[in-house]
Design goal:
The chain is α+β, with helices and mostly antiparallel strands. It folds into two domains: 73 residues, 2-Layer Sandwich (NE0471 N-terminal domain-like), CATH 3.30.2020; 103 residues. It is built from eight helices and eleven strands. Strands 7, 8, 9, 10 and 11 form a five-stranded antiparallel β-sheet that branches. It has a three-stranded antiparallel β-sheet with strand order 1-2-3. Strand 1 and strand 2 form a beta hairpin. The protein is globular and about 55 Å long. The N and C termini lie far apart (71 Å).
Length: 202
């Protein structure tokens, strides 16, 4: 005796994000987790841009208006990565550079004027950034990190805003003692804040 099982259409109900993944809640009760690295526009978007999504139809797809990205649930279930060409992605990065390329000195002056900045990581963990003349000290409950020098932050700023390179491997500390992922957790909320406040900074 054989049993033929045909899966009915599956739709997305909601989405949430971790530091490096997108988790899609499906209408059949499953959760599907995929790496953000599969979708460069999501990876390089801000948290606010990623969280501003619209379900297509009954949930057969997801649309991000601020990132001009569309992903189908069928593609997610099949494990398909973004099929965008390098040329198309380069054009998108160039457009974003023009929109968000605030000079670092202007951004630093704005940060220094705030002295202390309350942030949250992508997972919602509180993060405090204390700005001094030549560095930023990041602190979160139970975890005080090494200060990040202004020089190091400027390098990361160039990678993030001007080159669009936001993978963990690009954000090593001078000493190499801290994990790459920790450095991204520090700079992502700070740089996303700068992108949101560009009208105030410029």
């Amino acid at each position: 005796m054989s049993t033929l099982v045909t899966e009915h259409d599956v739709f997305a109900e909601s989405i949430r994000f971790s530091e490096d993944s997108m988790i899609v809640h499906l209408d059949d009760g499953r959760e599907l987790s995929v790496p953000l690295a599969w979708y460069p526009r999501l990876l390089n978007g801000t948290r606010q841009e990623r969280e501003k999504y619209e379900l297509i139809g009954d949930g057969e797809g997801i649309h991000w208006p601020d990132l001009d990205e569309d992903i189908s649930v069928e593609g997610l279930l099949a494990g398909k990565r973004s099929a965008e060409t390098d040329t198309s992605l380069a054009r998108w990065f160039e457009k974003r550079k023009k929109e968000t390329a605030i000079p670092f000195d202007d951004a630093w002056t704005w940060l220094a004027s705030k002295s202390q900045i309350r942030l949250k990581t992508a997972t919602g963990k509180p993060l405090m950034a204390t700005v001094t003349a030549n560095s930023i000290q990041f602190t979160s409950p139970g975890d005080q990190m090494r200060p990040v020098s202004k020089f190091r932050l400027q390098k990361w700023y160039r990678l993030w805003f001007l080159e669009g390179r936001r993978e963990n491997k690009h954000f090593r500390n001078e000493s190499g003692e801290e994990s790459e992922a920790k450095n991204v957790r520090l700079v992502r909320p700070l740089f996303e804040l700068i992108a949101r406040k560009q009208g105030e900074i410029a």
